[in-house]
Task: structure prediction
Amino acid sequence: MEEPTDAIDQVEDTITHFSRIYLGGIPQLITDETAFLSFILVLTATEALAGFRYNRTISGSGSRFNAFIGAYFPPEYHPFAVAPESGRSRLWLFRCRLVHGFSPAGFSLTHHHSGHHLGAYAESPTNPILNAEDFYGALLVAAQKYFREVRADPELQTLLIGRRNDREHGGPVGVWDRFNRLPRPGDA
Result:
């Protein structure tokens, strides 16, 4: 199948792949063995959406990430996306430490404990609790809000398409399948 060339087709193609990979894939990881990985995917999904939404309008991945959380995530997440004087918000620091070092700095992680989400944990009172299902739910709300906006706004479509087509700083969401069309060794 060829890459779509019409703007709305490119937007829909991106939304479809994003939804299949992230929004469809994350719930499968919220189990005892893999819940930790679901947090990584929520963070990278948020960063991908922030890149599409704020492509070339806000510089710096952390600034785009925080702006996206402030604009699209439920309000209870907004205080964690404000950068203090150090320059890194709690959620951006969490993203950096978790993605690059597999360390959940700044939050205590759990799953199947929605009643404790964003509450205090006695053993680590300065690190709020993130519950995997609630964190995923916030991503789902944010993604759907952004998707509604981008479908209706040609300027946002241009930003998304620019990021999608920028193979150095962005690129499409998905696994490149063009290798499936290459001749195999021994084929005539």
Observations:
- The radius of gyration is 18 Å.
